[in-house]
Request: fold
Amino acid sequence: MPTPVDLSRLSFNQMTCDTANLTQAIEASAKAGLKWIGVWRHKIKDAPVAQFGKQIRDAGLGVSGLCRGGMFPSLNPADRQRRIEDNLRAIDEAAALGTDTLVMVCGGIPQGSRDLPGARRMVVDGLAAIVPHAKAAGVRIGIEPLHPMYAADRSVVSTLGLANDMADQVGSGQVGVVIDVYHVWWDPQVYREIERSRGRIFGFHVCDWLVPTPHMLMGRGMMGDGIIEIARLREAVDAQGYTGPIECEIFNQEVWDAPIDQTMARMKHTFVTYC
Amino acid sequence: MPTPVDLSRLSFNQMTCDTANLTQAIEASAKAGLKWIGVWRHKIKDAPVAQFGKQIRDAGLGVSGLCRGGMFPSLNPADRQRRIEDNLRAIDEAAALGTDTLVMVCGGIPQGSRDLPGARRMVVDGLAAIVPHAKAAGVRIGIEPLHPMYAADRSVVSTLGLANDMADQVGSGQVGVVIDVYHVWWDPQVYREIERSRGRIFGFHVCDWLVPTPHMLMGRGMMGDGIIEIARLREAVDAQGYTGPIECEIFNQEVWDAPIDQTMARMKHTFVTYC
Reply:
């Protein structure tokens, strides 16, 4: 039997309810008694970031992470530079929001290219380029490996092993990994790579893999509704010394369409039951 | 520049035109001047298998492989035994058809279970159980690793590395791997694992990964329409001594709906251009 997970670690990643704006997500999270919220960049455009930061703190919440930086690869050097500059802004936003963690979705193969190793090199170069600014801002860069089905168009970082390799290559304590069970559960090497992530796990995300899988993007399930051994993965991550927040992040139209308070209740129940 | 691929290695996997029956696929392959065809089990139900074998030989074609055995995992021991027996029949069908290669889609996580390592053990046990019969029949067992997006419901063998591990565990020259670019292209370790497959590569399949990816099952593209470095993978496979047929296998409604002769022409052109 897995050790019980502490409900106080649960964080509501706001993309679990895309239909709510950030203010609504903050209010619902606080009302549900949560301690954490995970924020997305496209949701902080309505007001100055620092104002959202204050609103979140005033609601008694911490920000577990800001999603997302990354998207480094491009065949055009000027475009790569623009992407790096956007990541510098993301670091500033994370700091203004009051979180020490920026989650990276590193980007796919550039349009017009088939060069996967080249795209991976661009990711490492991009990460290295933003390290000094991240360090100065006190923001950690968490490389989130994405499921291989997103390797072409979202992230060429397809395994936790590769994320660890990249963190090693960049060679800065500012760069680590964010582990989402949805992206890594299938990997025969995942437990070995979780051990290798020790000391640089900057985030942990949960949801479930549904069978049959309804959709490549919108097919995530609530914890317990699928086949992932979430508690086993959570214990493996904890065993490496990770004691931080655990974000629930579910892209699923049915979940999005449910009233947010109902989603909060369901999320809390399935979190303590299956994580 | 990659070395040119020999058109005589091209094999028409009949699931590239699901709308055709086996007789139509044989006739179209012969008319297109191909030397090989890849056959699926559900397409040989219309007549005795040996009769199809003769028809294929009479058309001047060889069978590059029979798809598919596998589907081993089940929580019920009697059901696991039934699945093994079905694989023994598949071996007999391969022999009757005149091919020395049975392609394995090994099966997903059993219904009612979340035990991924357990399912993987059931695959190894199932493979080991059919080796003696495969040996007696002169049929080789090719483990085809499937893309991780199929790990839950189709194959828990998600990487070429795991397929190699399993072949090692079974420890018989009768068991090797079948490499499909669609399933392995994203893997940071694929070139290392192709080297490790030396001497046990029993098949090589091509198609392409489209961007955006239209569908989890039916989203494969014709060679050149996507982002896979097919020629590089083909050369890596060849470099390990593989000189056998190369199957084109495309699940895509648009391709299925095209006239089969048109698909043949397009396949031949894209094969020599992009493989």
